[in-house]
């Protein structure tokens, strides 16, 4: 369907802007939230784990983690290898996650207003399949 991805991109930027506005009182941005979200849902993780998941360069994740450490939302814990940096959420990070998760859910519910559960389900199931097709074309592993 021609124009599908143009429509997606027109949705993506305003959504990220809204999320950044929602998170700004906590000195966070969506890019920092991604790290918090990953750790919350995958447990203590290495920077490589996070960078691979989001397909972002490790130095980018390192900068994000440093900022989250400054905010005392994540902390480093010993890993299997001293060279490996493993991070986990602090208690403050857990609290911020819960607070923002509720606000994001409220935003998501408002954005999905007027869209049937069936339409939402179809979209929810289709987007990962599009991602799989893209990764296959690039020869990357699919998670």
UniProtKB/TrEMBL annotation:
Coiled coil: none annotated. Keywords: DNA-binding, Transcription, Transcription regulation. Residues 1-132 form the HTH marR-type domain. InterPro entries: HTH_MarR-typ, WH-like_DNA-bd_sf, WH_DNA-bd_sf. GO terms for molecular function: DNA binding; DNA-binding transcription factor activity. This is MarR family transcriptional regulator. It comes from Ureibacillus massiliensis 4400831 = CIP 108448 = CCUG 49529.
């Amino acid at each position: 369907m021609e124009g599908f991805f143009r429509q997606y991109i027109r949705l993506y930027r305003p959504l990220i802007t809204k999320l950044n506005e929602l998170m700004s009182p906590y000195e966070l941005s969506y890019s920092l939230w991604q790290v918090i979200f990953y750790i919350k849902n995958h447990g203590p993780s290495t920077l490589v784990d996070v960078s691979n998941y989001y397909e972002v360069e490790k130095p980018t994740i390192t900068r994000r983690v440093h900022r989250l450490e400054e905010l005392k939302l994540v902390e480093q814990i010993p890993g299997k290898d001293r060279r490996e940096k493993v991070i986990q959420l602090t208690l403050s990070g857990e609290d911020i996650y819960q607070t923002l998760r509720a606000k994001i859910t409220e935003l998501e519910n408002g954005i999905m207003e007027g869209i049937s559960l069936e339409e939402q389900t179809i979209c929810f199931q289709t987007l990962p399949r599009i991602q799989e097709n893209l990764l296959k074309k690039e020869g990357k592993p699919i998670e």
